Amino acid sequence: MENLFLIIISTILISTILNVFLKKLDIPTIIGYIFAGLIINYTFDLFHTDSEALTLIAEFGIVFLMFTIGLEFSIKHLNAMKREVFLFGSFQVIFSGLLFTALALFLLDVGTKTAIILGFALSLSSTAIVLKVLNEKNQIHTGYGRTTLGILIFQDLAVIPILLMVSIFAKDSDSVGLLILQTIGSAIIVFAILFMGGRVVLDKFFGWVTSVNSEEIFLASVLFVVMSASFIAHVFGFSYTLGAFIAGMAIAETKFKYRVESDLVPFRDILLGVFFVTIGMQIDLSTILSYGHIIFVLLVSIMLIKALVIFAILYKSLQRRISLKTALALFQVGEFSLAILALAHNNGLLSSTYNQVLIITIVASMILTPFVLKNITKIADKFSPETETEYENISSGGYKNHIIICGYGALGQKIAKHFKKIGINYIILEHSMNFVNLGRERNEPIILANASRVDTLEAVGIRESVAVIVAIDNASKLRLICEAISSIDSDINTVVKVANKSHQEIIDGFKINHIINESEEIAKILIDEVLNCKIKNI
Q1: Which of 277, 309, 397, 422 has the most neighbouring CB atoms within 10 Å?
Q2: Which domains does the chain have, with CATH numbers?
Q3: pLDDT in tens, 57-92
Q4: How far apart are CA 82 and CA 434, in angstroms?
């Protein structure tokens, strides 16, 4: 017991010291946790000891990561990025997975089942590292950032069937077809219980919990939901992560999504850190000495093949520069690949030697990623110096007593035209390059930017503005913009056009000064026309 306590203290201390130094080099904390695990492993000689309790805790790091990912998978969210997620993402996972599977069959001494698992595990990239770096560098809304995010979303979705595939392959059964049908049937039951049932129950449950206005009770209720959903999935023969993911999806459909997300992120990150510590503990340095040349060849080959596949998929649909930067951002293998390999190894589908070699290769690719992302613009400049469609850097200051127009669609164009005619000072924020180019042709003061970001709104002087007009139709973007405005100052004079009552309900909690309901206003005009006999008989 005392030894375990000493190991925990030492792990926390080493992780803290390493991450302080690594953070100064702009390297994600994930790498620090992995090296901390490696140091602890050899300091306390843990490599051959039983660490089942620590592994179980680490698994919950992945559980809560999958839960928070599930929170992002509302139907509206996926619909807004359907091309990036379902087209680019599916092509990337399928083509990369099949290519790596074929290479594993021909080059490695493994069976078909193991080759398939290896192939699709290697097709995944690191959501944790890539999104963390992109967010820190404020590049998530750039041309390549959006494409990268879309592909990562599909990869995260693909984790579920890959984990299920490992479970199916691990079971000894003469009838694989029957096993698959049973698995699909169980999956439907689990989905019905957790998602369909959750949507009905969770709103009322969290409403009841929040009635006492206690943060700790609310957090406890969230932990209860996550762990219960994980347990139910496990009872039906699935991984804990599947239950957590479905629970996240169910909560994403409730009004408590954003509060749950903000409350759980620190808890998730700590547990995820434990997971990476256990990955570091699995690294055997003797493997590097014995198979160093193989690891190097694998590392270079995997990163090169993956980058080429992604570039080839995107090249015809996007700018060459955006395709190149997306390929460079996703060339590594990710944390879920480690989880899949660990499950395969524990089920006897992957030998200890292959497992060790692949773990070290994957970790090495993850370590290289922050350095590549930090210099991605310089690398892209050498291979593709063309101008990239990205959001502009907006310098703060210079805006005062003006009106901010969010959106330059049909409505935004009419508003801008009228303001220009009567001499009112205004500025337009638009996320579509096509509309931005149209505005520039008309000499409009238009900026390619994300109006849902607080720093963007601050930079165009929202506090000094006369009013903000939100003239967009997308409901999810409408909510994000109103949420950003409200977080800056709820007294900002804001005018929002909504399409209907349901869109109005989405932004009801943000204290918007003026909401124009399009359907209601048109109905009033039509009624007025009829009552005043202005409609002529045809």
Answers
A1: 277
A2: 11-38+53-383 (1.20.1530.20), 403-531 (3.40.50.720)
A3: 666 767 777 777 777 666 656 666 778 888 899 999
A4: 19
